[in-house]
Each structure stands twice: as structure tokens, then as C-alpha cells.
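Researcher: Sequence recovery benchmark, item below. Answer with residues only.
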């Protein structure tokens, strides 16, 4: 049985990296006595696959890890066991059976993610950020320079920004996410600062991931990774 676990990662633990999160969950499975399956061979390991890693310093209420079970356990029982042994900064939100098949793999099936961004009080820009935000994103093109370790490319990210909004001090974004095109929220906020010829630093903002999605945006296949599964009764 394949299972998808949804969890939050907040507070001080937002500063631990992806490898630390993996090791944490390996220990948590043993402490909570979850009947997770192990690989075969000379060096067995837990069958566990995480979705898109979260940036260090970012919070999330929608992280996912897929595991395989070798015996039955109900969703409620598993959630209670895991949260009993987990720390407050990492809470298990759901535990659902998912269909077999590569199409349902958390990492390979991600197509979008939603975020809530706030500009830190000490870094509030002198210009009208809300006006600059809508002036830029309402255009037909949003040209940015996207840097990686090996290259620097100029591209139009507007087709990959699906939804955007500002409500009070919260900036909401729904953007493409995954192996095909991964748009980081800080790239969008930097584009707004660049449009005003103002300096931007990633430490100006706080980021919270609120959901991850699979399928094609604006089609019936578009749903959260959690909605792919069903509770184990």
C-alpha cells in the first residue's frame, strides 16, 4: 500500500535543510511504530519519497512525503501516533492511500504550488509596492533573469504565474512548480523591485507554502496532492 503524508514545517525548524527533514522522518517512522516497508538488498532502507524540497527559512503547511506500508494501519491511528512522537514545529496533517503508478508520484507529478509572502516590516519599500505589483503582473510579459549554478537565462515568467493577489500585507501567488518549470516566489517579488529600479534581497520577505498541486491548471485534472488520496479506514 502506498501512502501520502501531508505535514507542516514551521517555527524554528524552517531553518533545517531537506536532508535533515529526511533523517527526521526516518526516525519518526520507527518511534511511532509505523509499518513502513523497506527495500531489499544488503543495505535496506525505508521506502520514502519527498515532494519538492522547501527552501531553508521558508515555512509550509503543505509538505508531502510518500511511503509504502507492509501492513495495515488506519489514517487516524497513524496521524495520532506520528504527532505524539513529533515536535510541535512538524505536525502530520493527513495520511492517505494513493493509487499505484508513476503518475501519482509526489515528486514527478507536481505542477504548481501556492505561497503566501510578506515583506518584513524593516524592509518595507519606499515605493507603492501594491501598485507596482499589479502594474507588472497585469502586463502581457514579465521578463526576468533566472540564474542557476551553471547558467543565466532571460525568460518570460508570466505564463507560469497562474494567480496573484494582495490582501493587506499578504501577497498570494499560485505559480508553476516542478521539474518542467519551477518559479520561486522570491523571483516574482524581485521582478517587482527590479521594475522600480530598487535593490532586493531574499531576506526582505518571509515565505509560506500553502499547497502543492498536480495536473493542468484550469482543467479538471488540477487538484492538490492531498486530494489524490483517500483515508484508510
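Model:
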Amino acid at each position: 500500500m502506498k501512502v501520502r503524508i501531508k505535514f507542516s514545517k514551521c517555527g524554528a525548524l524552517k531553518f533545517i535543510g531537506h536532508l535533515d527533514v529526511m533523517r527526521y522522518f526516518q526516525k519518526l517512522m520507527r518511534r511511532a511504530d509505523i509499518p513502513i516497508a523497506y527495500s531489499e538488498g544488503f543495505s535496506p532502507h525505508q521506502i520514502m519519497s519527498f515532494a519538492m524540497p522547501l527552501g531553508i527559512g521558508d515555512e509550509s503547511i503543505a509538505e508531502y512525503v510518500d511511503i509504502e506500508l507492509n501492513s495495515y494501519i488506519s489514517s487516524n491511528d497513524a496521524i495520532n501516533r506520528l504527532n505524539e512522537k513529533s515536535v510541535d514545529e512538524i505536525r502530520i496533517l493527513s495520511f492517505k492511500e494513493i493509487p499505484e503508478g508513476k503518475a501519482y508520484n509526489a515528486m514527478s507529478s507536481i505542477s504548481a504550488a501556492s505561497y503566501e509572502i510578506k515583506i518584513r516590516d524593516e524592509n518595507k519599500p519606499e515605493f507603492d509596492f501594491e501598485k507596482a505589483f499589479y502594474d507588472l503582473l497585469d502586463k502581457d510579459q514579465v521578463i526576468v533573469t533566472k540564474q542557476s549554478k551553471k547558467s543565466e537565462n532571460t525568460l518570460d515568467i508570466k505564463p507560469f504565474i497562474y494567480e496573484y493577489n494582495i490582501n493587506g500585507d499578504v501577497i498570494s501567488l499560485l505559480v508553476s512548480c516542478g521539474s518542467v518549470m519551477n518559479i520561486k516566489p522570491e523571483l516574482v517579488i524581485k521582478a517587482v523591485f527590479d521594475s522600480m529600479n530598487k535593490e532586493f534581497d531574499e531576506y526582505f520577505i518571509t515565505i509560506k507554502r500553502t499547497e502543492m498541486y498536480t495536473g493542468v491548471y484550469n482543467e479538471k485534472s488540477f487538484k492538490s496532492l492531498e486530494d489524490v488520496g483517500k483515508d484508510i479506514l
